[in-house]
Structure formats: C-alpha cells, structure tokens
UniProtKB/TrEMBL annotation:
GTP binds at residues 27-32, 148-151. Required for accurate and efficient protein synthesis under certain stress conditions. May act as a fidelity factor of the translation reaction, by catalyzing a one-codon backward translocation of tRNAs on improperly translocated ribosomes. Back-translocation proceeds from a post-translocation (POST) complex to a pre-translocation (PRE) complex, thus giving elongation factor G a second chance to translocate the tRNAs correctly. Binds to ribosomes in a GTP-dependent manner. HAMAP family: LepA (MF_00071). It is found in: Cell membrane. Its EC number is 3.6.5.n1. Pfam families: EFG_C (PF00679), GTP_EFTU (PF00009), LepA_C (PF06421). It comes from Planosporangium mesophilum. One of its GO terms (molecular function) is GTPase activity. SUPFAM superfamilies: EF-G C-terminal domain-like, P-loop containing nucleoside triphosphate hydrolases, Translation proteins. It is an enzyme of class 3 (hydrolase). Belongs to the TRAFAC class translation factor GTPase superfamily. Classic translation factor GTPase family. LepA subfamily. This is Elongation factor 4. The keyword Cell membrane applies. GO terms for biological process: positive regulation of translation.
Length: 622
C-alpha cells in the first residue's frame, strides 16, 4: 500500500519520521518481529507474507541469520496516546547480528535515532545484547528495552525485565513485552517507538549530506545504495558525489523501499531510501561514505568511515584443477557485492592453483565458501584459517604474513599477532570452566562483573588465532550451551610464535605449514603427522613424515614400504585382463599428487585439512 498525502517520500516533514533499528542477540527473534511490523503497518499483506521477508539471500533464510541490512519504510497510524490517529513514517533498519559484521551494525545504528533492544524472555541478556547496546549508546540512540517471545512457556519476563532495567538504568515497568510470533504487544511497541524515539534533526537548507549504511549488488540494476539523509535534500536526476573518493555519478534512480522499491523525486532531511547510479561494484559505493550533490557539494564528510579490514585468511583451491578459471570468475562476481572480500592468486605445491582470500571472520569465510560451492557449483578445499601476523626482522625490515608458508626465514626479531577483547556471559556455575578454557587459549582476564545473582560477565583479552579454531564450540560444550560470546579487535601483541612445517620424505608440504605458539607447536606437529600417517597409502619405499621448526624435527611418523604387484593375482596368461588392470592403476595415479617422490591421494589433503580446519563456527548460533 503506497503511502499517501503528506507522507510521500521526499515530502515528509522530519517530525513525522522515526528511524529505528532492532538490535538483538542472534536468535532472539529480530526477523520475526520485523515481519510482524511489516504486517501490522500493512506494507506487506498476509498473502505476500513469507517468513523472514527481509532476509533475501537463500543462505540467510536457511541459516536464519541476517547478513545484509535492509531499510523499510512503514507508514503507521498511531493507535493510542496523545498522538492517536496521527500518520507517521517509521523507517526500520534491519541490522546484521554477528560479530563479523560489527562495522555494518555500527553504520546501520548511525542512521537511526533509536533502537529497540530485543531480548528473548526465556534467555535473558546475552553477550551480543551487551555489545550491541554499547554500540547503540555510543551512537547516542534512544534505547527501548523489549522482551520478546513472552508466549513461550519457559519465558521469565519478571526476572529478565529486572535484569534489563538494571542494565540500562530504567524501571522494570518500562520494559515492553511482545511476542513476534503471536503479534502480542507489537502495535503498542510501534506506538512507543513514535512516542519515545526523537524525530530526526538536520539542516534542510544546507548542502546535501547523506550517509551510506548499506550497498548491495543487483544483477539487473547494478549497485543499490541505501542512504540516510542527514542535511539538505537529494533530488533525482542530480549528479551525486562520493566524498571519500570524489567520484561523481549520474543518479539513475532514487526511492524508498516499502518493502518493494518505490521511486521518488527527492529525499529530504531524516529520510531513508536508496539510490542507483549504475556503478557495478560495491567498492565504489562504500558503507560509511558520505553522498553529496555535485552541483552544491558539502565541504565536510560525516564521521565514522573506515575501510573493512580482513582478519582471517585462508587458501581456497578447486578440487578439480581445471575449475580454476571458474573459481576466479566466481570470486570476481562475489566481490561485486562484498567490499570486505579480498583475494589474490596463490600456488601451492600440494594443492595447485588457488586463491589466498581474506575475510572479516570465520562466519564470513564460511558464507563465501558456501556460496562458491552452491551458487557456482565448485568443489573446494580450504586450508586451515590463519590470522595476519606482523614480523619485525632483526635487520629492521617489516613483513606482514597472511600465509604461513610465507613466514620469513632468517633472523626474526619480534612477531606480533592480533588480539581481541572478548566478552563472555555465563551462569555463575560455569565461571571456572570458562576461565580454564580462556587461560588454555592464552587469555588474560581483564575484569569480571555480576549482572545479576547468577549471571557473570567475564572480559578477556585473547589472541584472535586462538578463537578462530573451535573456541566457540568448546565454550558451548563446557557451559552446556549457556555461555555467549562476543568480541572485537583490540590491536596486537608481541608473541612467542613459531612456524611448524610438515615434511613428507624430506619435502615440506606447504598446505600444512602453520604458525602457532611455541607451547603448542609439538601438539600440532604430532596431530598432523599421525593423521597423515593414516591417510597416505604405503609406497614402494619408506616415507618419513616429520614436523619441524626450522631444521629441528619435533615429531616423526613413518609409512612403511610396500611393493604392490597388481599382476600377482593374474597368474593365467590372459593378456587383456593384465592390460585392464594396469590401465586401472594408471587411472588411480591421476588422482594422486606428487610431493617430491611421494604419491599422495587428493583425498588425504582434504581429510587432513578438513579435520584440522576450524569446525565451521556455527555462526555463533546456538
Ligand atoms: N515462541 C516464539 N518464538 C519466536 C518468537 N520470535 C521468534 N521466535 C523464534 O525464534 C527463532 C529465531 O527467530 P529469528 O526471528 O530468526 O531471530 P533473529 O534474531 O532474526 O535471528 P538472526 O537473524 O539470526 O539474528 C525462530 O525459530 C523463530 O520462530 C516469539 O515471539 N515466540
């Protein structure tokens, strides 16, 4: 239902606009609540409604997570209170909830004046609730505390209202209660959004300034950029300018999403909408950048812009070497929609041609890999993920290492590794288990607070490298699933790191090299060596498998020699049968990779890497 009268896009007075987002821990019901709001405000009618309307990507819907934020304009007629009967425009900005996408969350928040802080009434506050709340407060947002899922038999609204009120310093009676599932309390919440969240303020006469809070590549339209107008007015058919690069673009279309795109002649102060310029790559329309009008440009960009920086690297290789060009094309396509994805060609003696790719985090890696396999039909091997190391050489040179096999030889001075500030929320009973885990991962306790009688917040500094392996799964299993985790980058620290090489018959296998802490080197070496010993078939000569730091061997396994005579079974004189067997053996050899003189089946690499691989961090889901 298109908006009417004074509420047309481009002609809505700021005091009739409310811009808000919903922030929540994963699975606390943000998408479901958003769906109910779409229905109640009648922008989507019941027939069109499908679960999680706003999550457009298939992977998002299947995994139930939100990756790309979207903004929807919802006209709402206030039902109760002083403003009853009045029409207002609510712009809801859906934010991603995972730590990998913190930068996108913070930009979405900056486009709003208020936030609905949604907490599952059966779970209470979780680590991400806190992290998101802090982000919202940093952005000066008005926060409306809301308990969701009050229809659940296990809901404890009294207890958690108390907890929430304590956290944000309000009265427990100010905590709203809704059910995204049944719709209970949602109309009241919309009224409260209008009543509590401040209207946008901006200078309507100033040169235009709009902030980009999302940008999405569309096959048919090119890049669709989501903006929030701060000052002035953006008119359709103007030429716009990106303030970070100075690039000028023709404006092909301007509009709002409600929830399908509706074209508009202009967007004024406080409005949220989209623009299309014909650029083909989201890198030309970056989240956080400021858009202005070329004819009358603003002089100062809005603050807060920063480039996304990859935190985790992994090599991606096609299992079938002839798929390499396909993989390159697929990465080129994904890049159009993902300003944070970086990659460059790399060759591995063991795995052939592939790409070293940089990601924001493990979930990002997993999503990209899954899209490559699913949307482009590729079969891939990914090497164990690693973080970015900085190495100061004794001669004063500095190296940045994104691939363990490029770890410099020679006189190494100091090695630095990235660290994160992690927040773990856990019931009291598991504090010991959590501390043990964090200490085992070289964590340093920074602080500890009781949120309520039985819930504790622990703050740790941890090396990122220790988290990207099974940390999250360990945390969950040691706390019976009760603890939650959130973390953010926090610089780097000096560390006692070494590179462990794995040698087959004296030849290093680059795909298995790893940079690990000195104390863990032995463990890594033994694990990989014994795994390979089981995976590699016997050869015609004895094959030692060694783990080494430099020239010092720290672990060794041996594959004993065997002489495999395939013809021994064919004692008869049938020459065609013999030939067939020899052919078959040749076929088998094609699937082998030669490492020095050793034949290694492709499967051995896959098996060894997939188990030493971080177990797909289930997106911090459960
Ligand atoms: N009983 C009940 N279940 C709900 C309610 N709201 C959401 N759920 C369920 O909770 C689960 C998570 O809901 P989502 O809306 O996908 O959660 P989300 O916060 O959007 O999750 P992410 O997008 O992954 O951050 C789903 O299985 C929903 O069906 C509610 O009010 N009551």
């Amino acid at each position: 239902m298109p908006p009417t009268g004074a509420l047309l896009p481009g002609a809505t007075p700021p005091d009739l606009i409310r811009n808000f987002c919903i922030i929540a821990h994963i699975d606390h019901g943000k998408s479901t609540l958003a769906d109910r709001m779409l229905q109640l405000t009648e922008v989507v009618d019941a027939r069109q409604m499908r679960a999680q309307y706003l999550d457009r990507m298939d992977i998002e819907r299947e995994r139930g997570i939100t990756i790309k934020s979207q903004a929807v304009r919802m006209p709402w007629q206030v039902r109760e209170g002083e403003q009853a009967g009045e029409m207002v425009v609510l712009n809801m900005i859906d934010t991603p909830g995972h730590v990998d996408f913190t930068y996108e969350v913070s930009r979405s928040l900056a486009a709003c004046e208020g936030a609905v802080l949604l907490v599952d009434a059966a779970q209470g506050i979780e680590a991400q609730t806190l992290a998101n709340l802090y982000l919202a407060l940093e952005n000066d947002l008005h926060v409306i505390p809301v308990l969701n899922k009050i229809d659940l038999p296990a809901a404890q609204p009294e207890k958690y209202a108390e907890e929430l009120a304590h956290l944000i310093g309000c009265d427990p009676s100010d905590v709203l209660r809704v059910s995204g599932k049944t719709g209970e309390g949602v109309a009241h919440l919309l009224d409260e959004i209008v009543r509590q969240i401040p209207a946008p303020k901006g200078d309507a006469d100033a040169p235009a300034r709009a902030m980009i809070f999302d940008s999405v590549y569309d096959v048919y339209r090119g890049v669709i950029t989501y903006i929030r107008v701060i000052d002035g007015r953006i008119e359709a058919r103007e030429r716009i300018k990106m303030m970070s690069t100075g690039a000028v673009h023709e404006l092909l279309e301007l509009g709002v999403i409600s929830p399908e795109p509706i074209k508009s002649a202009a967007l004024g102060v406080g409005e949220v909408g989209y623009l299309i310029t014909g650029v083909k790559d989201v890198r030309q329309s970056r989240v956080g950048d400021t858009v202005t009008i070329n004819a009358r440009p603003a002089t100062e960009a809005l603050g807060g812009y920063s480039d996304p920086k990859p935190m985790v690297y992994s090599g991606l290789y096609p299992i079938d070497g002839s798929d390499y060009p396909l993989l390159r094309d697929a990465l080129d396509k994904l890049k159009l929609n993902d300003a944070a994805l970086v990659y460059e060609p790399e060759t591995s003696a063991a795995l052939g041609f592939g790409f070293r790719c940089g990601f924001l985090g493990l979930l990002h890696l997993e999503i990209i890999r899954e899209r490559l396999e699913r949307e482009f039909g590729l079969d891939l091997i990914s090497t164990a993920p690693n973080v970015v190391y900085r190495v100061d050489m004794e001669d004063g040179a500095e190296r940045v290492v994104t691939n363990p096999s490029e770890y410099p030889a020679g006189k190494i001075g100091t090695v630095y590794e990235p660290v994160v500030r992690a927040t773990v929320l856990t019931p009291n009973d598991y504090v010991g288990a959590v501390m043990e885990l964090c200490q085992g991962r070289r964590g340093q306790l920074q602080g500890m607070d009781y949120l309520s009688a039985d819930r504790v917040e622990l703050r740790y500094t941890l090396p990122l490298a220790e988290i990207i392996f099974d940390f999250f799964d360990q945390l969950k299993s040691r706390t019976k699933g009760y603890a939650s985790l959130d973390y953010e980058p926090s610089g780097e620290q000096e560390s006692d790191l070494v590179k462990v090489d794995i040698l087959l018959h004296g030849e290093p296998v680059d795909a298995f090299s790893a940079i690990v802490h000195k104390d863990k080197a032995y463990n890594y070496g033994v694990t990989i060596a014994s795994k390979l010993q089981k995976l590699i078939p016997r050869q015609q000569f004895e094959v030692p498998i060694q783990a080494a730091i430099g020239s010092r061997v720290i672990a060794r396994e041996t594959i004993r020699a065997i002489r495999k005579d395939v013809l021994s079974k064919c004692y008869g004189g049938d020459i065609t049968r013999k030939r067939k067997l020899l052919e078959k053996q040749k076929e088998g050899k094609k699937r082998m990779k030669m490492v020095g003189r050793v034949e290694v089946p492709q499967e051995a690499f896959i098996a060894a890497l997939s188990t030493s691989d971080a177990p797909a961090d289930k997106g911090a889901k459960k």
